[in-house]
Amino acid sequence: MPENRRTAVVTGASSGIGAATARHLAAAGFHVVLAARRLDRIEALAAEIDGTAVACDVTSEESVAALAAAVGDRLDVLVNNAGGAFGMAPVAEASSDDWRRMYEVNVVGLMQVTRALLPALLASGAGVICNVGSTAGRVAYEGGAGYTAAKHGTKVVTETLRLELFDQPIRVCEIAPGMVATEEFSLVRFGGDQARADAVYDGVREPLVADDVADAITWMVTRPAHVNIDELVIRPRAQAAQHKVHRER
Ligand code: 8X3
Q: So which domain of life are we looking at (predicted)?
């Protein structure tokens, strides 16, 4: 890693909020380590922003250990963005595999990356962790239980970590986005069904886009070292609450 630049790790950096956050942090002066499973994508983005691409599956301890080795002994910012939703079945018809995958990536993966990079974050003397949660970590909605349970997990892990590290030179934050139209989130959730994915944003004139969330994350992690943004809920103007969405048809 470059000696004289602040360094940030972004997981899930191959698309969506992760890729946008990598770009924003690079523009803010960080050397960004892009971590994701799809190496071809993050290598292209790393070349664009003069960052470093590291292939990483956050659910694999070996893979996360390799990420930590690549980062080295000093790190300023960790954005735990890797996550996702799989399926939208009601509890009565839920897929155990989908639920396990959601817990693995949104909770266990986040823990594994945090655990591995914590020594480097502490060594910087002013590290900051920003976990990407969701408004799904604040409420329940029909068909969402596997994902809302996992994102409630993201929130609680964030709160726990802040308590455990209360006397250490590190900040622990969570951003909880609502409706964000990215190229993959809903498509992945619905197993590649583009029509169902598009229907999520149907008639919503301006859902958030990845840049909106990246902008907020960059603001959160660049506050003075004594300022901890515990949590930030961010929604489009059209979404007054999870079920209260203004759709123009
Ligand atoms: C995404 C927000 O509303 O699809 O994290 O659960 S929602």
A: Bacteria
